[in-house]
Design a protein that fits this description.
A hairpin with a 2-residue loop joins strand 23 and strand 24. This protein is an alpha+beta fold. It has 13 helices and 29 strands.
């Protein structure tokens, strides 16, 4: 997702059988068992209907969705939808209700329990505060499978300020054609379809069937399997997502698109399709950007490993809103303006595409299973842009980019220990401060260790890099990142992660020049220890000084004017004097 405001201004599943059983064991079930155990007492825990994430209520922690089959018809003139979804889930803890989420603006027409061959139609389901409670008739035991079908429809919520406000965008192109898109990261996928709206539960695969008026194209996640015309003048686009997907990333992009096609040879060895769905009037601009899209693929593969969704495609869809990281079909609404995401400043590349594409690794390949670790998505993607400038312009470009981001509040922890909803975590400076934390971590442990850690966060080994069956997708936490950084740096980093991620305040660097001496020491917030070295430049000589809360004295010659941290590697506040 693009930052809430420009950095420089605000500072800011065909079915489960397609996948190996190890995915559920290693990638998903483990986390659901943790959630069941951890939140068993939170029977009534809920977040507001226009928010997503937070602690899972017991009834939703009790099952793990394997597959969604979503069919939806769009009526643009009425701004209305009709849909049907089949949900296939495995019970991980005894349950007698299947609880799904759906926005209160949409109506449930019928519900079937497909796992009940005697009386499949459910007549006693109920709606409560944006949730659908489906009575399964009797207790389903761990290891059983449940399958339900829900028919629903209505006028979905309209996004007032997409992508930051979720819902449907019902726009028009310059030629007067319908131009439609969905965004729902903050509010959740339940804004437009019945779903288990939680970042921790990704289906192994998903089918998506979108029916639109003739003349419009539905560009969606995964790979398009068939296109079918109907007698009433509508057209269905049938897509299949072969890998796990975070449900907020499921997206509709609808317009009279022209498609720009290409093929990219991955460093993993195979070719995969690259597609840009562009408005007809912007086709030439799209062709020009397509070259840069290929360049961005090269950069990310070189640093982080193969593009994760080679089994399907890499797609870009031009949208009426700024952008979003929808898996294998990122939303692009920068209007071919390099500075659309950076307060108008052109850094020599399309920053919006670069950021959203980065989420294919940070967010879609590597996913936080609780929003509290969202900095792994946003902060990491933000930092990747500085690394891109370093490759293109050297350290001068890198530091210039980082310096321009050094404006953010320090009022909320970037990665708090407590579970967070989407709205809660996006109040924290997870973009820019998250990037600066990585910047300072690089200084502490060295670039080689950090780059190795980033690569291992994405792919644990070469075998994982080669796979395309979905088992490459995995959840990760801030603790995982700490462990990997410690492995590659051979340093204990508890103090660093506690200081910079688990609480908000910055350490203070106490610096004083007096009587031909320079004294330095750290003062940590709430008496937290600080062991960050600091660079000092005296008489043209740069020295790295090991530093903690004990005062360090550096002798100066008459006339020396010491420069402390001249390259601005450290994340801290400055306090003059003792």
């Amino acid at each position: 997702m693009p930052s809430p405001e420009p950095f420089w201004v605000a500072g800011e599943s065909m079915h489960r059988s397609k996948l190996s059983a190890s995915i559920s064991i290693m990638k998903k079930t483990f986390f659901f068992l943790l959630l069941v155990l951890g939140f068993a007492k939170l029977l009534q825990a809920q977040v507001p209907i226009l928010d997503s994430g937070g602690p899972l209520m017991y009834e939703q922690a009790a099952y793990d969705v394997s597959f969604y089959d979503l069919a939806i018809r769009i009526f643009p003139d009425e701004k209305r939808i009709e849909g049907q979804v089949i949900v296939k889930a495995k019970v991980v803890h005894p349950m007698n209700y299947l609880v799904l989420d759906l926005d209160t603006l949409l109506q449930v027409e019928e519900v079937w329990d497909l796992s009940d061959p005697v009386s499949p139609q459910v007549t006693n389901q109920r709606r409560e505060q944006g949730k659908i409670w489906i009575n399964l008739g009797h207790t389903r035991q761990a290891g059983e499978w449940v399958s339900v079908r829900i028919r629903y429809g209505g006028n979905p919520r309209i996004a007032i300020r997409a992508p930051w406000d979720g819902g449907f965008s019902w726009a028009k192109t310059k030629q007067g054609a319908h131009w439609i898109a969905t965004t729902c990261q903050g509010e959740g996928a339940d804004l437009w379809w019945p779903v288990k709206d939680h970042v921790s539960d990704e289906p192994d695969s998903m089918a998506l069937h979108v029916r639109v008026p003739k003349g419009l194209v539905a560009a969606c996640n995964g790979r398009m399997e068939t296109e079918a015309e109907h007698k009433d003048g509508s057209v269905s686009y049938n897509w299949f997502i072969s890998t796990p997907i975070n449900v907020y990333n499921v997206a509709l992009n609808i317009a009279p698109y022209r498609r720009i096609d290409g093929t990219y040879k991955s460093i993993a060895g195979e070719d995969f399709p690259v597609m840009f769905f562009v408005l007809p009037e912007d086709y030439d601009k799209g062709k020009k950007l397509f070259t840069e899209i290929m360049e961005h693929i090269r950069f990310y593969e070189s640093l982080l490993g193969p593009y994760p969704f080679r089994a399907d495609k890499y797609g870009v869809a031009q949208t009426p809103h700024l952008g979003m990281e929808h898996q294998s079909i990122i939303a692009y609404g920068a209007n071919f303006n390099n500075g659309s995401m950076t307060g108008g400043k052109d850094w020599g590349f399309d920053a919006l595409h670069h950021h959203e594409f980065g989420h294919e690794w940070w967010g879609n390949l590597v996913t936080n299973f609780d929003w509290k670790d969202m900095w792994i998505h946003e902060g990491f993607c933000t930092y990747m842009q500085a690394l891109y400038l370093e490759e293109k312009q050297g350290m001068k470009g890198y530091h210039a980019y980082m310096d321009n981001m050094r404006r953010f509040p320090n009022n909320l922890a970037v990665a708090p220990a407590k579970s967070q909803s989407s709205k809660e975590i996006y109040r924290a400076p997870i973009y820019t401060k998250g990037a600066w934390i990585l910047h300072t971590l690089r200084y502490l442990i060295g670039k080689e260790a950090l780059m190795n850690a980033l690569r291992e966060m994405c792919y644990a080994d070469a075998e994982m890099e080669r796979t395309t069956d979905g088992s490459q997708c995995h959840f990760a936490t801030t603790e995982d990142f700490q462990r990997i950084c410690e492995k590659h740096s051979k340093l204990k980093l508890d103090w660093f992660f506690d200081l910079y991620l688990r609480q908000a305040a910055l350490p203070k660097l106490i610096s004083k020049v007096e009587n031909n001496t320079l004294s330095l020491r750290w003062e940590g917030p709430n008496q937290l220890p600080v062991y960050l070295p600091i660079e000092v430049k005296v008489g043209g000589k740069l020295e790295r000084i090991e530093l903690n809360s004990t005062e360090k004295i550096i002798k100066l010659s008459p006339g020396d004017k010491p420069e402390v941290d001249p390259n601005r590697w450290g994340l801290y506040d400055i306090a003059k004097g003792s």
